[in-house]
Amino acid sequence: MKPMARSIVILLSILIGLASLTAAQQSDQGPPPAIITFTSELPAVTMDALEQRELKTTLSWYIANLSETQQIRLQIYQLNEWGDVLPETQTLLAVDEHEITVEPPLNFGLPTYRLSIVDTQGRTLDERILTIPFDSEAMAEWQPEIEQFSTPAQNVNAADLSAGRARVEVSWRVNERLPNTNIVFEQIMEDGRLIAVELPRLNLWLPSEGTGSVAPLLPDQADEPVRLRARVIDLITREAYASAELVLPVVGTAVRAATATPLPNILPTPVPDFQGCTVSPLIVPLTGAFGDGCNVYRDGRLNIQIDQFAVSALGVVEAVPGANPRGDLYGLSWNITGSSYALIEVYDRNQIVPGLDAYPALQLITDLPPVGAINIILPDYLSNGARLVLWAYESEGNIGGGLLRRTAYVVQDIPVVSSYFTRPTPIPSCEPRFHFTPGDSDPYGCAAPVSIYTEPGAYQPFERGFMLWRSGDRAVLVFSKDGWFSYYQEVNYDSLPDNPVTEEPPAGRIKPVSGFGRIWGNLSEVREALGWALAPEQAYTMTAQTSAASFYYLTTPDGTVLQLRGNFTWRLETAP
Predict the structure, then answer these.
(1) Radius of gyration of the chain (CA)
(2) 530: Cβ–Cβ under 8 A, 6 or more apart, which residues?
(3) From CA 14, how far away is CA 180, in angstroms rounded?
(4) How confident is the model at residue 202 (pLDDT cuts 50, 70, 90)?
(5) Could you please report the per-residue DSSP string of 46-87?
(6) What is the pLDDT of residues 121-145, one digit of tens each?
């Protein structure tokens, strides 16, 4: 027998032996486990009973072939993530039932439960999803009603309204709420305009009863009160089922819009299709030159149009520790037809270089209505001005990485932010200092002492972002160029299979491996957000810094400082 043939026979023998051993082990372990049934005794729910947490149900299941080394997990889907229904220390049996209180999902979905079987390494062997539907027959005659809309405030300060820092606490209670509806809060201006006064939040859904703060604007006329309105609307049809109003007098004095410097309402006629630009619509607002034909876009296949995007300079805002930074106050208003939502991005023009990818937005305000207005504060360190991008978008595709179904945009450039106002004497610098270089103060206000430390880390660049690994908590962070980041603990990604993607990467691109590869290969949303890797994983010493201002700082291999915020957004703080 020839040496090559002998080697092949030996290799085949080894493979056959391994296969036999694996088969024998599986035989010893018996057949795999399987969830046969997973049911609820409660056939349906109504919105009121669900939110009042007055419903109970018995969840029962039958699982075949469960071994002693395997565990059962019962979870509920709330606030867009899975959580345990019962304590982890409680043992669940293969044939079992448990009475629970039915909890609302805190989103627009149905009460949703997951029963899963996991092995000793945390891998899921089988799972079953159960939802409890709404009782459409019981709610057929319901008519939503705002039973309460109130505030403890007696008035609103004019200076706070003018500076954009006015906050009014409101409470509400809605009866007979229907699915697909939400509560929205608006300010009614003297000329009939409706201004959205809700503060940005991570979740669009609001409970039928609650308390929160709204941010009203200064009325147009000196003797006009602040008129607030709450409405219950259908998010699909935009039909309003109920409304209630509050009226608060304005006290004190403030510099009014008559002294403000209006900026031009630059709105070129939208082109029917994306033309004359060499990069995608998602990148053009950041890398294209303003007015080059790429500063306005709409998807020609859809009947969506941005009719108006206006910007006005309103005044100077002094820093409030722990709240507003020192900067310039601008009023933005817009009108979009044919779209469900709007979002606004604010960029530092110093970080926009034509032909290169821009850094993430300084501000990202989502879940805005298609017609509305807000006030924003632009920090006074924007020495080259700001770029504002108004997007029309649909809610489909929001995976936490900033991937929204964007359908149209308009770009506005403010050349030099500080040029519109005469500034008072600068406020004293804050102590202690932030960041890694002595003398660099945090632009977002003073804060408590910080902690700086170093730890081993890893970095890998991708087409539309990058990944970092931190040794301290053995976590992987995924950064999208849209300004979002996500966080994966080792216990969540280590049990995932090795990168299962079999597709060969394009020329000059790399398929990630190890922990980065597990996350990238098994989570489609991460692949869509980042694209292919540009270079192999790189080990380095990471410097990190924590603060008491809900910010967290860390470095990349080239010394770039990243600022991570508590709402899972990030920005470039300094570049080497």
Answers:
(1) 28
(2) 462, 463, 464, 465, 466, 467, 478, 480, 520
(3) 60
(4) low
(5) -HHHHHTT--EEEEEEEEES--TT-EEEEEEEETTEEEESS-
(6) 888 999 999 999 999 899 998 999 9
